[in-house]
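Notes continue from the previous slide.

Worked example: a multi-chain complex. Inputs as given:
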Amino acid sequence: MNDAGSNQLQVIDPPAATVVTGATGWLGTGLTTALLGDGEFGRSGIVRGLVRPEESTKHLPDGLDIARGDVTDAASLNALFDGLSGPVDLIHTAGVIHPAASMDEFDAVNHLGTRNVMEAAARHGVRRVVHVSSNSPFGTNGARNDRFRNDEPYHPYLGYGRSKMQGELAVLAAVDDGLNAVMVRPPWFYGPHQPARQTTFFTMVKKGRFPILGDGGQVRSMTYIDNLVQGIVRAELTVTDPGRGWWIADAESYTVNEIVETVGDALRAEGFEVKENSFKLPNLAGSVAEKIDTVTQKAGKYITQFHVLGEMNKNIAVDISAARTELGYDPQVSLATGMRNSIRWCVEQGIEL
Amino acid sequence: MSGTVSTPSTVARFADGLLTNELPLLSDDRRREVIDFIGRRVQVLPSLTRFGVLMIGRFVDVTGMIVGHATMRRFVTKLPIPLLAEYPRLVRSLGFAYVWETWPDTTVDGGTGVAP
Amino acid sequence: MTTHHECDVLIVGSGAGGATSAAILAEAGHDVLIVEEGPWVDQGSVSPFSLDQMDKQYRSGGVTVALGVPSIAYTEGRCAGGGTEVNSGLYWRPPEETLERWRSRYSIKDFATDDILAICEEVEHSLSVQPVPGEHTAASRILQRGADKLGWQNGEIPRWMTYPEGAGATQGRRQSMTRTYLPRSFDAGARILCDHRLDKIVRNGRRAVSAQLTHAGNPVTIAFRDVIVCGGAIQTPAILQRAGLRHRIGRTLAVHPTVKLSAKFDAAEHGAVNTPEDVSVFQVKEFAPNMSFGGSASHPGLVALALTDNWRDFGKAVTKWPELAIYYAAITSEGRGMVQAVPGMRDPIVTYRLTKRDRDLLGQGLARLATVMLEADAEEVYPAFKGAPIVRTRADIGDMASRFAASKASVMTVHLCSTAPMGDDEKRCATDSHGLVHGTDNVFVNDAALLPEAPGVNPQASVMAIAIRNARRYADQRAG
């Protein structure tokens, strides 16, 4: 393993061009906004985003170079590299978390799509690839005080987990063939640019209707988007062996009770009226939801509500010390601040909570 | 096979069938020795386990007389029926442990020969 | 014809609890008689971890089981010296936070951590507890190499062994009870009756007055002033229950459930991997106390046993047993079990229930252990559960983890305790803070049954330290 002390980390300059897949997604939007902004992670080179042919680019930051293509269409990915010269880095954020129609999307995008992207990166001599993976290939912690270490065995959680595991394996296969690729693994991320389902989360807390299973003591790691952007950029620019993967999350993990309380406090601090949370369900409800989720996924269907509820009584908590020592990763935003930022962003966008 | 003194005949019959099937090249002498060992262990099992093993042994044996011992053996070794499935597992575990501890160069078929 | 004996203190059982108690009390001038159900077997006269040893020194030839879903196989030593004669001799002090938790949660009086650790130091001296001076076995080095590559904390566990100058791991002489505390107790006048099974302790109200035993089919009676029951976590509660004592007895059996795998290594690269008569002295403690990994006995017979869960796919590996070693993942369990003596039955009924967390941890532990094996360059890993795949790559571990269910696994344990927990909290405990059974004047427990919880480490150091502490207290209070 790579155990360089933080003072000896070797950091390289941003490349002439940075290519981001999944640019229109939640993370892609946040990432490209940061790379093109004036903040700590702003850079002067070209930032180019992969956008599917039919997608709107309205919400994307000014200055983003748009390449039309789709990770599921290998040939279309050449457009990402058209006319670029000098070193190119690629951040692969494209992925399906909650498929709209069919379970097949998981494999098509998260697995085969990743393979296509790695092959394109290898073809075009990309300097460094950062693949955004997930906690899902690793399942859940057996005990509440367990923390995932950096090198954990795979134990994929349902269809999404399997497809993200296959994605990681595709990256590792490309590394074996000589590609300089690494991975970051953020659990449950949140923050500005978040999609509607996360807004629903705020609304549920505000109405006191967030489903807490059992005693609510399940432990979760979460990742604020700015912390994640920091982790991605450090993984890109810090020199390490290829094939490494790191947990990128907030400094601490939280219990579900703490999360709900913190969100409630953040909403109050932003001037919302928040009802006492009274929606408690027995653990059994989580198990039932998980069973339904498993059965429907086997039948090729995906129902977000069951999936989310089924996952609610799990512990998913990670140890970020490897990212700290190997990348100098140092998350700056806490849950309380991160949630207030998210709420403010929703209000600014005119989203009703 | 019924020449064993200490092994209950029902268990001996079952063990003999199982060993013949799973370790076909195990010699008759050795198989008898293994069955004796299984019998000795069954005799010293804790009260309840021993009672259970003898009951299941008798049930399997009697049913085997009707449907055929081989059919019954396949049935109990393949199907994951709680308790019932423990019976072949116990017999196999004891038998295999004895075979390879006593004759470590035994082949996977139960044959002698190849030095490891 | 009935034989009759008399003594001041009758000690039932001669293992880690009984032998230490006997030495302390005899040296304090008490007239001590030990009764032991099993035989006296000299160290070195049987091959360690063999079926022959199981026949001679284990209860029921080592085939004992706690019923449940899954059932958990366990083993009990049944010989002079008890478990210390037949286990791997790995010695681990009770963790300080464990001692503190026991003290506060169970209201154990006079249980200062420093006092217990001071006794541990004495025990370590008496048993020559030490690391291997010379070379480690391949099985040890494999575990160390795999864990080191992952950056997972691991280390050597010292054993109660003496070694010739600079000798390797396999040349140790086990400093078990038959070599240490039992001879010490005999020197101080204690007597032992082996092959004597205790059937019943006879009580008169709060006082126990005599014991009925069987020796070679003949009845034996023993009259005593006090009785100290040290039969281990399964026999002790059964003995007490047969004497009509039931309060909190046998209700809270605690174990460290374990799951296993065998791993195959290239002999050309790593040398002879299988060491039939020794186990790994390294343990991986990165995830302690939730889970730890270590090595198991790997006799060819035991290798065959570890492959039987999926014999169709794994069986052919058995001929390669010199290249195979067996490892375990043990967890601290939230579940509890019961020991229930039934009138008319020789042996108690033992049950154990794993919780969901326990099952999940067993799966997670097995997957992490398989990861250690692959990092240590295992060519193939054979997990011991029904329907398990052969693991060759990280992706295979994903497949293995998805197929795992505790109910399909060969779950076993060698650490049993907590069936007569000690402490002044009478609602939770069977005995007072020093092992006197609540509701009696002269019935003591002094073995693993007293540990209020499974300690998360090899428990015999805790058993010995607590037994010595209680025996000293007894000696202080009752003149010899």
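Summary box: The longest helix of chain C spans residues 356-375. The first strand of chain C starts at residue 3 and ends at 6.
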